[in-house]
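User: Structure tokens for this complex, please. No commentary.
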Amino acid sequence: MLPIIRAAPRMLSDNGTMRPPLAGTPERKSAVCVQSGRQRCRTRRSFADGCLRWDPARVKMGGAGCQEGPMTPQDLSDIYNGYIDCLNTQDWGRLGEFVHDDVEHNENRIGLPGYRDMLEGDFRAIPDLRFNIGLIVSQPPCIAARLHFDCTPIGSLFDLPVDGKRVRFDENVFYRFTGGKIRQVWSIIDKAAITAQIRDGNGGATG
Amino acid sequence: MLPIIRAAPRMLSDNGTMRPPLAGTPERKSAVCVQSGRQRCRTRRSFADGCLRWDPARVKMGGAGCQEGPMTPQDLSDIYNGYIDCLNTQDWGRLGEFVHDDVEHNENRIGLPGYRDMLEGDFRAIPDLRFNIGLIVSQPPCIAARLHFDCTPIGSLFDLPVDGKRVRFDENVFYRFTGGKIRQVWSIIDKAAITAQIRDGNGGATG
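Assistant:
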């Protein structure tokens, strides 16, 4: 069990650099960070409290445990891996740690509740759904990921009659983060590959 | 007119770091770099000769004009912008400066000639084709880009009867570079958006 560290919270600006909180904000004295195995902070402001770059050396010395400086590509990749873990474990109570309240998906401002509804609907349509990261390209404040799916949707998927067939397809998706949370998503799914597999009945891999 | 600089060529390893050429290779004495407005090197090995990080200060001092060190996200973005310029000007004679001889597209090894054929076919099908960069995410040796198209294809496009209608759509695409050139491409085009625009006849923007 790692020690609980009380740290002066630091907010992230949109480009991932850290800036001190406004004087007198209620977060100044109330933020409590607990280092997890994934360098994740469990506070009511979650990743926005500046503990993205946890420094074990400073923890040992009784310091704040937080480094100042811009978010690195690895920091953002760590957050993204945490987000994908959250989806694959369907741990919807934690979704707000990764997704902004005002999230937009393909230019539609669906907000966190709409985003959760979308994901829960995906798992209802595809009981064996699993998000597999094929490639991550990280340049704060953005991440691009190529995700691979190998699954057996029930009924229809994207208006295509899959009906329990095994299909394999990919998604190329971009995310822009604000304050350490996903604020905008631009996704394209390779629906043509699913159509081809249903037509050919081969369940082959997509390109 | 900028001076012609003779520089000992340095090859890029797959992760973008520079390494000296093998002793005795014919490139050792023959590389000649000319700095262009786009920090581009015109040699027979093009970007692979280590001048990705052109240093004007060293040019003035009569130095090699090349910095050593890992390729930065900006270096790779500069190359990518040069590649997009090459496509939009249909300057096919320069395509080999940006695209590897053994390039793969969606897991198909089509090589540079096949890649050029594909692009030339795109411009025949879409005379007003223009590649517009919406978003770049750069983390050497990879780049991800969201490209936007607003065009009027003649005949069919992706087996869809567009027939001169204006359509707007996006492509989310990943590239992996080797030696400063595009070696692998994973592209997904939002064909569903085109289908919707043909069906609705609205030529609306895609999401």
